[in-house]
């Protein structure tokens, strides 16, 4: 697997010394899509880590698979659109056009599929002794086969919608990422194709009777009893398949009436997504040549776009299996539970009062999102609060935040919610919430034509005597109560007046459609964020070998940023990039990026925080924000980064960055060919996420200990001595 990916990189760099818009491709960059595949390879490596509990490893297989699905729907879909252009652009980072990138992707995909199959099957076998068994019909006892057949006839067969494909029955539209059982049918001298959609409203798996967690997947059940569905036919070549369709739709590309409601426009866009062109076909078993040719013709695919998988095409059921585990088994098969802890910077009592006195930083998921929600709840009933304004990109299906915002509007506060309806795959959820907010009396506005609003900023305006004052929250992650317990993010709450004035100006500009506003402290894309980051890199370049840059983010693709980082490396600046996913700049390239190090951490929680640090000591400038160094973020989105002024918070963030750079268990270091290797463990093992969990738990213990009375502490002391 690694050797083929490395071959793809080497091939692209050796064969594509091409001219891109008058500029030669440089030797210290790599293709975005192949870099992403390497990231997903690191996810799969977590599924192979023997120190990770078995069902957690299976979850990583599911995450790898889900990532791959989205990659095909968005990135591969986008490349297919580009192939159709008369003059397709060339990727300046690799010198490959869209067609070459697709070919490289398909070459790299084959070994990834095989590695995923091997990993899944190895974990599955290891789960059997624990009584967690995914089975085929052949492996069932006679009584179990009887149970399955009875269930199929009574619960499944009545709701199936089978069809044949012949001269009178056209080939149906196969929905994106839905399963279909197919087979060749023959009646007398007539041959045809039979198709059975696996219903979306029945369970993906059927649990078998007994104490163990033994189950069979529903597509296997349907395939087993095709003879009961197509009774008058001879059945051959049974299989099940899944089509992946292009989902890279932008409503800005559509021809809509200028006066048409944007929410209606998004509903139309979502409807169209279901019918986009196919970009992949997954199959469970090899296809006969005639059937392969037929499906390629009907779906407009090539054989290279057909992938055989020995892994279930839908793996969501893994999470339901974990929910069925008895507590005694959970200790062996899943991670020890961890709940976000109370903030170390807050005491009991009003959050608003404490934020007015000092800046507060929350670190998710080690600390709870609760203080921010409490802040909004307090503001919703505070008679001195006049307005609450917030940008929303993604929300949970169930969210208290919307309840508190609605309550604030109903209590007479002016509540403005800028909700981005184009948050990919959350569009319908955001449409639903926008309607709920409007019903409660909130003022709801949407993003800009051609620019997604991806910023995470909230402002509370209140009156203190005759003076207008602000509380501003700026974070790196969404206001999503579910992902706040799974993604690593930081969130700043501050009463700093100048930041508050900037935030007030930001919301005014958003309301009047002004992308070109100026701000004293906030960095706002598309106008000032990238320019300011490049300027701060220039400041470090002036320091030469005394310069220092540490930046943590999810992805690096922006060409201007890449060139500037390379320039800084050539000037002797020590640079550490902590990049979870795509990174198109290669470190350690002689004469170019020798002073650059790139680290990726893939662990229990999804690394999501963006932290930028320039310089050291009293001259250090530090920012947190919503933007990655990707062109889409720096030029096509509204992003906000906020400076850290509080010395205690700056010290805390510096400590977090140091621990992440010291991680030698979950961290991988990028090599100059784009491959990654695990860091050598010399001395004590350091796992950054475990360090942060431990710190959060210890902080809570100290907090609880401080609440004990003298007599309780004395009793606790003597009980430890027994």
Note down, in words, how this protein is organized.
The chain is α/β, with parallel strands linked by helices and 722 residues long. 41% of the residues lie in helices and 21% in strands.
List its salient traits:
21% strand; alpha/beta; 29 strands; 22 helices; 722 residues; eight-stranded mixed beta sheet; ten-stranded mixed beta sheet
Q: What profile does the largest beta sheet have?
A: 10 strands, mixed
Distance between the termini: 56 Å
Radius of gyration: 28 Å
Strand content: 15-25%
Regions with pLDDT < 50 over 5+ consecutive residues? 7-24, 251-260
- Record field, number of beta strands: 29
Class by helix and strand content?
alpha/beta
Assembly form of the protein = single chain
Residues in helices, as a percent range: 40-55%
Summarize model confidence as the mean pLDDT. 90
* Overall 3D shape: globular
- How many separate helices? 22
Summarize the structure.
The chain is an alpha/beta fold and about 725 residues long. The chain is globular and about 90 Å long.
Topology:
Layout: H1 2-15, E1 19-20, E2 23-24, H2 32-47, H3 54-83, H4 98-127, E3 132-134, H5 142-156, E4 163-165, E5 179-187, E6 190-197, E7 205-207, E8 213-217, H6 218-224, H7 226-229, E9 234-245, H8 262-273, E10 278-283, H9 289-299, E11 306-308, H10 317-324, H11 327-333, H12 351-357, E12 360-364, H13 370-381, E13 385-392, H14 400-410, E14 414-419, H15 427-439, E15 443-445, E16 452-453, E17 457-464, E18 467-475, E19 487-494, H16 497-512, E20 523-525, H17 529-543, E21 548-553, H18 559-570, E22 574-579, E23 596-601, E24 606-607, E25 611-614, E26 621-625, H19 631-635, E27 637-643, H20 647-662, E28 667-670, E29 676-678, H21 688-707, H22 710-721
Helix pairs in contact: 2-3, 2-4, 3-4, 13-14, 17-18, 20-21
